[in-house]
Write a structure and sequence with these properties.
Elements lengths: L1 E3 L16 H11 L5 E3 L9 H14 L3 E4 L2 H10 L3 E3 L8 H9 L4 E3 L6 H9 L4 E8 L11 H6 L17 E3 L6 E3 L4 E5 L1 E3 L4 H7 L3 E4 L6 H19 L5 H11 L7 E2 L12 E2 L8 E13 L4 E5 L5 E2 L3 E6 L3 E6 L4 E2 L2 E2 L2 E2 L4 E5 L9 E7 L3
Parallel strand pairs: 1-2, 2-3, 3-4, 4-5, 5-6, 6-11, 10-12
Antiparallel strand pairs: 6-10, 7-8, 9-13, 14-15, 14-23, 15-22, 16-21, 17-18, 17-23, 19-20
Helix pairs in contact: 1-2, 2-3, 8-9
């Protein structure tokens, strides 16, 4: 799991942890057998070096498994403190000579530039003993990984400081200042690449020897994180068992398409993306969306049923539901039994209260959503 604190991370607009949260997150991850990687991957200015020192002191104390960054001030301090360091994709490492240079600085792992092909990665792996990490799913920038000045120029918010406003995701027009004539730039969002999705070539990436696969997930919805992580975890396990087939990969790709995406591309792994791999619309191209139904009133552990107040919508047998809460996390269920006032029913209307089967514990005030298909 990678996470950020208030400063020095590329999701400055997200709800990040404070310094006091570093130890709590690290301990929580460790208790669940999960490594905790802290992102400190922005440019660091001269007047922030003392803040960086304070942050790294807390990192060292908490025993964070690895820090992700690329500013040389960070690298120098992590080496002095003995903090394991992963070079961020912000460094745009794309060859084995650069990888070996960072290796000499004490780096343990590198997240390669997303512009590397699979052949490039194989060569880098053969010529360095570093661990190699690559992105396998999520958003891609049109510029060299995050080093883009468009947001700074148009919005006064720097992508290099984690404040990108993503103006590149919008439509653009060409305007003749003399006549006022205006032309739309093609049919696509020319500066907005489709999201990378490697589920159908994941076997090739595993066989290449890549050590770690990264899913872009911070500032995403709970259902996005749950779906993508579960799908790729299952694919990796099936490959290890010799059971990851093209037909299974195709089904998995359809499942990934149900949550937030801008359309799917294999990125640079098998060649340079073409014009057809630009986004076709603004925002998400997901095939489903969640509609708020209500909230949890109670959960009965022995019977494994949840009592729900339908505050905002109707429910019926066969519906797919998301139950989401800060402590409960994300749970997806299909309504296979439905009771209203202890009477079995096929459907219930807004304003009523129902009980349904739920195999995992949820909590009072957790939110309930119905999943619906999005029509083309």
């Amino acid at each position: 799991i990678y996470f950020g604190v208030g400063q020095f991370n590329m999701r400055a607009n997200a709800k990040n942890f404070g310094l006091d949260g570093i130890e709590r997150v690290t301990d929580y991850c460790r208790s669940h057998g999960v490594a905790a990687h802290l992102t400190l991957n922005t440019i660091i200015y001269e007047n922030e070096l003392s803040d960086l020192d304070r942050t790294l002191a807390r990192v060292k104390e908490a025993g964070v498994d690895m820090v992700i960054g690329w500013d040389l001030a960070l690298l120098e301090r992590c080496r002095a403190l003995g903090i394991p360091l992963c070079v961020s994709t912000q460094a745009s490492v794309s060859n084995s000579a650069a990888a070996r240079f960072y290796e000499q600085l004490g780096v343990k792992r590198i997240v390669l530039a997303r512009e590397c092909s699979l052949d490039d990665i194989r060569s880098i792996l053969q010529n360095t003993s570093l661990e190699i990490e690559t992105f396998v799913h999520g958003a891609m920038c049109v510029a060299v990984r995050g080093r883009c000045f468009m947001s700074q120029h148009l919005c006064g918010k720097s992508a290099n400081r984690g404040e990108c406003q993503q103006p590149c995701r919008r439509e653009f027009d060409i305007v003749d200042p003399v006549s006022g004539y205006k032309l739309q730039v093609g049919k696509n969002y020319v500066l907005s690449p489709q999201d990378i999705c490697t589920i159908d070539i994941l076997d090739q990436l595993i066989d290449a020897g890549i050590h770690s696969f990264k899913i872009e997930g911070r500032a995403r919805s709970p259902e996005y994180v749950a779906k993508t992580v579960a799908t790729y975890r299952k694919a990796i396990d099936l490959h290890a068992e010799g059971q990851l087939t093209p037909s299974i990969q195709a089904v998995m790709k359809e499942e990934l398409a149900t949550v937030y995406n801008r359309g799917f591309s294999q990125g640079f792994y098998l060649g340079v993306p073409g014009e057809e791999e630009k986004a076709r619309q603004y925002g998400s191209a997901a095939t489903t969306k969640k509609v708020h139904l209500g909230s949890v009133i109670n959960y009965y552990d022995k019977a494994q049923i949840v009592y729900i107040k339908l505050e905002a919508g109707d429910i019926a047998l066969g519906d797919t539901l998301y139950l989401i809460g800060n402590t409960s996390g994300f749970i997806e269920i299909t309504v296979d039994s439905l009771y209203e006032d202890e009477v079995p029913v096929k459907a219930a209307r807004k304003g009523g209260s129902v009980t349904i089967s739920c195999p995992r514990r949820v909590r009072e005030r957790d939110q309930v959503y119905r999943v619906v298909d999005i029509e083309d």
